[in-house]
Amino acid sequence: MAKIARMKAVNVLLALLMGVQALTGILHEHLAPGTFAHVHVPCGLLLLVLSVVHLVLNWGWVKASLFR
User: Fold this and answer.
1) Exposed, middle or buried: residue 64 (CB in 10 Å: 0-12, 13-18, 19+)?
2) Long-range pairs for 14-19 at CB < 8 Å and ≥24 separation?
3) End-to-end CA distance of the chain
4) DSSP letters of the chain?
5) Is residue 43 within 8 Å of 15, Cβ to Cβ?
6) Which of 1, 14, 38, 47 has fewest C-beta within 10 Å?
Protein backbone atom coordinates (compact mmCIF):
# COMPACT_ATOMS: atom_id res chain seq x y z
CA MET A 1 0.00 0.00 0.00
CA ALA A 2 1.39 3.39 -0.97
CA LYS A 3 2.16 5.96 1.71
CA ILE A 4 -0.63 8.29 0.56
CA ALA A 5 -3.18 5.47 0.70
CA ARG A 6 -2.02 4.55 4.22
CA MET A 7 -2.28 8.18 5.31
CA LYS A 8 -5.81 8.44 3.91
CA ALA A 9 -6.89 5.23 5.66
CA VAL A 10 -5.38 6.35 8.97
CA ASN A 11 -7.00 9.78 8.69
CA VAL A 12 -10.45 8.28 8.04
CA LEU A 13 -10.06 5.89 10.98
CA LEU A 14 -8.89 8.74 13.23
CA ALA A 15 -11.94 10.79 12.29
CA LEU A 16 -14.29 7.87 12.97
CA LEU A 17 -12.65 7.08 16.29
CA MET A 18 -12.79 10.71 17.39
CA GLY A 19 -16.50 10.68 16.60
CA VAL A 20 -16.99 7.49 18.62
CA GLN A 21 -15.05 8.99 21.53
CA ALA A 22 -17.11 12.17 21.44
CA LEU A 23 -20.44 10.35 21.21
CA THR A 24 -19.69 7.82 23.92
CA GLY A 25 -18.34 10.58 26.14
CA ILE A 26 -21.42 12.77 25.65
CA LEU A 27 -23.88 9.88 25.93
CA HIS A 28 -22.06 8.13 28.79
CA GLU A 29 -24.96 8.46 31.22
CA HIS A 30 -27.48 7.18 28.66
CA LEU A 31 -25.58 4.08 27.53
CA ALA A 32 -26.37 0.59 28.78
CA PRO A 33 -24.22 -0.54 31.71
CA GLY A 34 -20.81 -1.70 30.54
CA THR A 35 -21.18 -0.25 27.05
CA PHE A 36 -18.99 2.73 27.89
CA ALA A 37 -16.16 0.50 29.11
CA HIS A 38 -16.51 -1.86 26.14
CA VAL A 39 -16.55 0.88 23.50
CA HIS A 40 -14.95 4.08 24.81
CA VAL A 41 -11.83 2.60 26.39
CA PRO A 42 -10.67 0.31 23.53
CA CYS A 43 -11.48 2.95 20.92
CA GLY A 44 -9.50 5.47 22.97
CA LEU A 45 -6.47 3.16 22.98
CA LEU A 46 -6.81 2.58 19.24
CA LEU A 47 -7.08 6.35 18.75
CA LEU A 48 -3.81 6.76 20.64
CA VAL A 49 -2.04 4.12 18.54
CA LEU A 50 -3.33 5.56 15.27
CA SER A 51 -2.29 9.04 16.38
CA VAL A 52 1.28 7.79 16.73
CA VAL A 53 1.03 6.10 13.30
CA HIS A 54 -0.28 9.38 11.87
CA LEU A 55 2.67 11.24 13.36
CA VAL A 56 5.14 8.69 11.96
CA LEU A 57 3.59 8.85 8.48
CA ASN A 58 3.72 12.65 8.55
CA TRP A 59 7.13 12.96 10.22
CA GLY A 60 8.71 14.49 7.10
CA TRP A 61 6.23 17.38 7.22
CA VAL A 62 6.68 17.76 10.98
CA LYS A 63 10.44 17.92 10.60
CA ALA A 64 10.24 20.40 7.74
CA SER A 65 7.78 22.62 9.58
CA LEU A 66 9.16 22.60 13.10
CA PHE A 67 12.87 21.91 12.78
CA ARG A 68 13.98 24.28 10.03
Assistant:
1) exposed
2) 14/47, 14/50, 14/51, 14/54, 17/43, 17/46, 17/47, 17/50, 18/47
3) 30
4) --HHHHHHHHHHHHHHHHHHHHHHHHTGGGSPTTHHHHHHHHHHHHHHHHHHHHHHHTHHHHHHHH--
5) no
6) 1
Three-class SS string for 12-23?
HHHHHHHHHHHH
| pTM for this predicted structure | 0.86
d(CA 61, CA 11): 15
Q: Inform me whether the pLDDT recorded for 4 exceeds 80.
A: yes
